[in-house]
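Give me structure tokens for this 365-residue protein.
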Amino acid sequence: MLRRELLQLAHTYKPDKHTIAGWYISEKLDGTRCFWDGGLSRDVPTDEVPWSSITDPKTGRRKAKIKPVATGLWSRYGNPIMAPDWFLNLLPCCPLDGELWAGRGNFQLCRSICAGDAPDPRFDRIQYAVYSTPALPYVFADGEIKNANMHRQVKLAEVETWINSRLDHIPDFVSIDTPATFKDELRFLCENIPSQDDRIFLHLQTKLPDNESEARVKTNAILEKVLGKGGEGVMLRDPQASWFPKRNRGILKHKPFDDSEAVIIGFVAGKEGKQGNVLGKIGALQVRRDEVQFEIGSGMTMAERELLDDRAFDYAAAHPGEVLPDWCDGKHLKRRQTVSFKYRELSDDGVPKEARFWRRREGVE
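Here you go.
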């Protein structure tokens, strides 16, 4: 089967490669990606939903822990997001793609609220910024989802049969026809999300000029404004592109630095230096991204550099600059934990340049 993702993903904007005249631009939000299926799977056992992530991609066996009941809200890796009923009742009976968001700089807060096994009482701090309404035949097109966090085959005929069995429970369900462009989606969303309250809203999309030079000038101006407010970047969307569950050249992300995720495989002991004394602490993380191994030494706070106990501290202090043995673990950053990092670009052999620690990944999407 063809490889695909559960949701649509963006490419990186490259000025020497892409033309963006007449495209839409919006702020790139720093939250939790979220797909709302219109309520089709609400209150259904998770393992009965034909796109849910119930198989461990590492072992190929059923996951040891699966959230028992779906809510209709799904992460990008096919896991239910446990929102309270009062929040779910605000959502329209149509498919939505967007971001659960707790405001700029509150990524960890948002993730901790959305990753729980039960609705978090802090959900009143969450907003749902909607930026797409994908057509269901695209969302559930035939293909195999296979990545580090999800493995499942999706069969459109099977999903459509299941959806038809659920429509009696949602008589007001509507969805956009196919094929549909992003411009069509915006028109549909304006009709079906009429109220722009502080809880569920259509994410602001600004049309760029039809002249390429003017479009780039405006893009840079909006990017600088977003960065000045503490945002991380912007998204660019082709009005004529259709939503599809894989990396789509009709949607581009534009940030000063790119970001990615890696798994911690070890630690290097810190030492005294011009940048500060990290003797007895973690000097650098040894990480693996895909098949590439490298070190991340900057971006961590002093607290994040702490080792697990006094024994590890004493060993690291006595062996500055050396790779720590397996029994030396971090207090907050641990082996086999996934972390996010920022970098400028990739070298020819795939090593991220100027890699800088960004944050831990709380929970699993």
